[in-house]
Amino acid sequence: MRETRPFGQTLLLLGSMTLLLSMLLPWWASYNSLEQQVTNINHHLAQIIEAPSSSLPLFNIAELSSGRPIETQSQAWWFGQAAANHQYTLDNTPIFYRLDITTATRQWAQVSLPLVLLTLLIFTFLYWRWRKTQRSQDHYFHTLLHAPEQAQPNSKHPIEQGIVELYRHYHGQLDNLQLQLEKAQYQSHQDSLTDLGNRFAFRRDLNLILDDENQLATTTLMMVRASALQEINTEHGFQAGDQYLQDIVKLVRKTIQSELGATAYRVSGTDIAVLMKGQCEPISKQLGTLLTQELHHYQHVHHLSCAAYIGFTQLLSGQAAEQGLIRADLALAQAQGGEPNSWSMVLKQGDSENLGESQWRQRLQSMLTEQRILLQVQPVKVYKQEMLGYNEIFTRFPNEEGGTYQAGTVFAMLQRLNMSMLFEQKIIEMILQQVQHHVLSQQRWAINLTPASLQQNSFLIWLERILMRDRDISAKLVFELDEQVLQHQLVAGKRLLEMIRRSGARFAVSRFGHGYGSFRLLKEIKPDYVKLDGLLVRQIQEDSTTLQFIRMIVDLAQRLGCFVIAEGVETEQQKDLLESMHIDGVQGYLIAKPCDINNFKI
User: Fold this and answer.
1) Which secondary-structure segment (H or E) carries 485?
2) Average model confidence (pLDDT) for the chain?
């Protein structure tokens, strides 16, 4: 708009000049007329003096005086010297006269006033038209600034072209900035290694789910913990660790591809979270089984002690995000307390499970320091004389309310807080003290080992040192480990078995009988005791195949020199069927319930 301002200034300047000329030109004509009259009077002054006074107006003389100046002064200052008193010398006599300027003034006014009015009208109209055009143009350009798409096509106006070019440039910059912003936002919510969403994207989507007003909508949270990452980083380097994480992510993606809308995130160095719509129980059974199989295969191919663990929980709208995360973490910890690559599901939380990590750590540390750990015993009914009494020891953890914590929750939190080894050492030390001073000397005492014990070389070294101190006490001990744990950590299991036998203790495989792979395991390690899984015992009456399978286990184990004990016997019919197979011992609520070790008597 600045380019149009000089035209307005020029118009004002031209109008002023025209207005001035319309006044000056008539004035100049009247002034020249007066000057000509002065010249004419000077030429004819002698005749004028001799003429009568009545003839003076003919020469346009207002006053005439000979020898004496005219006292009155003209007031017509606009004609200057022409309207003033004139002096002329004739024959050494000074002659004074003054012109009559009334006619000249009237002529000037009659010509200049119409010209001035006409000039004012013309330039006022021109200026008004220019201002109107200017306002219209300003309004158009102002509109164009806000809506450049309304620009006239093929316009050659420089300002309009400038606005359109500016708009295009500005719009291009905005598009570029928007793309960069979207890219930056995407990158800020993406994990660079796995191309999954990161923890910020996870918390964003988690909060959206929990803030959903649909109270009936349910979402399943699956957490996968790549537990072998630290081991791989230490032994093979960080590049191998990165490849391991990418492989686990591929297995997770392969498993969840059937779940529409399932989204995976990497929420920490080792944890991968998956959010998917649907009820937790059916999803966890399906995906947990599939992913566990994939992880077992990956573990076998890459010779790992464990590939990963899986935890499931249910999310409901209106819940706090921290509650869901605590349940998922607890499910992971429970899975880590079981066999390698296993999965666990936690749907509800008790009051103790709502405790934060710092509170759990304080309570567990206090429990460890004060030895507030209860030992309970459940005996086995033995049928063969050559078999010493067998008593399995369980641990219970009292709480501040006079009850006990759930053992699974405590072991899960120990695993989560990396305190499993400390508690396992304390429990074994307490059991050794009880066995040493117990009146039942001709008995064997079974101690359950957690899966984490196989992964702790320092624990195995400590355990061997403890057992070697008193071989008489060690000879009374039986260490139990689940079959599924041994199936997937066979090398570490054999190392543990060799150490136990060197110390004079015995070894038992618990929860035995998950499939025909059990026979291969039986041949590989030849344990001292085989404890049938309680699930098989419960099915013995309804399923003839299970009955035949148990017969095969009993026959093969006894041929290999193993004692066979059935767990979970609760009915007389189960007991009678097992006795008919010539089983070595039975254990369960039908035989005896667990009791305090201090009060235990046979």
Assistant:
1) helix 483-488
2) 83
CA-nearest of 316, 394, 329 to 355 is 329
Question: Quick one: 460 exposed, middle or buried, by C-beta within 10 A (0-12, 13-18, 19+)?
Answer: middle
Q: What distance in Å separates the CA atoms of residue 156 and residue 174, rounded to the nearest whole number?
A: 26
- In contact, 397 and 405? CB cutoff 8 Å: yes
pLDDT digits (tens, 9 = 90+) for 174-214: 878 777 776 666 667 788 888 888 888 888 888 888 887 77
> pLDDT tens digit string along 510-525?
999 877 778 888 888 8
Full-model pTM: 0.59
**Residue at 144 is within a domain:** no
The answer on 369 and 335 residing in a single domain is no
- Boundary of a domain, candidates 109, 125, 155: 109
CB contact at 8 A, 528 and 562:
yes
Give the whole-angstrom CA distance, residue 68 versus residue 459: 147
Residue whose C-alpha is closest to residue 493's, from 458, 502, 484, 561: 484
H/E element, 155:
none
Residues 338 and 219 reside in one and the same domain: yes
Return the pLDDT at 510: 92
Residues 329 and 463 in one domain: no
Q: What DSSP letter does each residue of 69-105 carry, written as one string?
A: --------GGGGGGGS-EEEEETTEEEEEEE--HHHH
Encoded tokens for 522:
């039986």
Residue 2 has what pLDDT?
Answer: 46
- First vs last C-alpha separation in the chain: 109
Please tell me the distance from the alpha carbon of residue 584 to that of residue 554, in angstroms, as a whole number. 9
C-alpha 380/C-alpha 392 separation (Å) is 8
In whole angstroms, give the CA distance from residue 81 to residue 200. Answer: 97
What is the C-alpha to C-alpha distance for residues 314 and 330, in angstroms, rounded to an integer? 13
Residue from 452, 567, 449 nearest 507 by CA: 449
**443 and 476 housed in the same domain:** yes
Cβ(48)–Cβ(88) below 8 Å: no
* DSSP conformation class of 317: T
Is 217 found in the same domain as 280?
yes
Locate 402 and state its tokens: 């006079």
- Three-state SS for 213? coil
Range(s) of the domain holding residue 50: 2-109
Which is it for the CA torsion 588, 589, 590, 591, positive or negative?
positive
Backbone dihedral region of 408: left (phi > 0), alpha (psi from -120 to 50 degrees) or beta?
Answer: alpha
- Which amino acid is it at 543? D
Cα–Cα distance for residue pair 431/191, rounded to 1 Å: 48
Counting as low any pLDDT under 70, the low residues of the chain are 1-5, 50, 52-59, 72-75, 145-146, 148-157, 159-161, 163, 182-187, 215-216, 349-356, 439-441, 602
Q: 69, 90, 109 — which closes off a domain?
A: 109
| Per-residue confidence (pLDDT) for residue 445, from 0 to 100 | 92
Indicate the number of domains in the chain: 3
Strand partners, 98: 63
**What does the block give as tokens for 161?**
């072209």
Q: Examine the domain organization and report whether 321 and 395 are in the same domain.
A: no
